[in-house]
Amino acid sequence: MNKLRQVIESEKVYVYDQGCLKKKNYFLPFALTDVLTTFAGINHQPIIHFWQLDHTMILGMKDTRVTNLASGINSLKQAGYNSIVRNAGGLGVIADTGVLNVSLILPNPNNKKISIDEAYTIMWQWIRSAFEDKTHLIKAFEITESYCPGTFDLSIDGRKFAGIAQRRVKDGTAIMIYLSVTGDQQKRGESVRDFYQASLKDDFGKNGYPPVDPSVMANLEDLIQRPLTIAEVKKELIRALSKDAAFEIDNQFISEALPSEWFSTELNKQIEKMQQRNQLLN
């Protein structure tokens, strides 16, 4: 976590926990990520954003360009999943009550830019600090047959439990990770595989779409061999941050600031963009 101390000059970190959101509020965490990233850049303020969706597949823009999107969406419905298109590229991931999404949002001014690889490494180190031990080493490399594969897939013994992405807005950077903590990871993998098979047919596993194999992914609790809850994972992450970098944690500021004119205006703008983007699913 030393690298995190090097890039954060503030002694205080704001934490905002949105909990698990229902379908009517699915746009909120994506819109808020951009707003918080802009705020972090303007105010030189690091922020941690926790959120979940109850039962959905979050599609990347590339996923909307499959051969037959309607067939893919129907496959997800049959598996019991809603769908939403996020405001970033890449490929799809599953969100449910056993998956925690975390954004580490950092100021990223022109005179002290964090490189793309540095940002990924910061998140990897944070997760290692919270959950790694001598017998459960957390490695970062691409698990090609996972869903949403990437260079900084996090795995233990070759099985992936998390993926990392980034979003950069003005002078801020959001380093975003989904953590499969508990629940039916086999079903998650099967549902994503079925989505691609239904929407791509003979092109499954081609043209940059992953040949999803559910067996290459697992929950964090299974990999470290101890029961975990989402609440416990949040506490472990905050504990690791405070232990290694001695930041003061502020859980109140963002909640109290959200009704303000600036936040309300910016959030409404981003929600409108999400609404326009998701017309692709109609």
What's the overall geometry? Answer: globular
- Main sheet overview: 8 strands, mixed
CATH topology: BirA Bifunctional Protein, domain 2
- Into how many domains do the coordinates divide? 1
Widest sheet: strand order? 7-8-9-10-6-2-1-11
> What is the CATH domain class?
Alpha Beta
Q: Which second-level CATH architecture applies?
A: 2-Layer Sandwich
Radius of gyration: 18 Å
Please report the distance between the alpha carbons of the first and last residues: 44 Å
Looking at CATH, the homologous superfamily is Bira Bifunctional Protein, Domain 2
Runs in which pLDDT lies below 50 for 5 or more consecutive residues are none
Task: Give the helix tally.
Answer: 9
Sequence of secondary-structure elements: HEHEEHEEEHEEEEHHHEHH
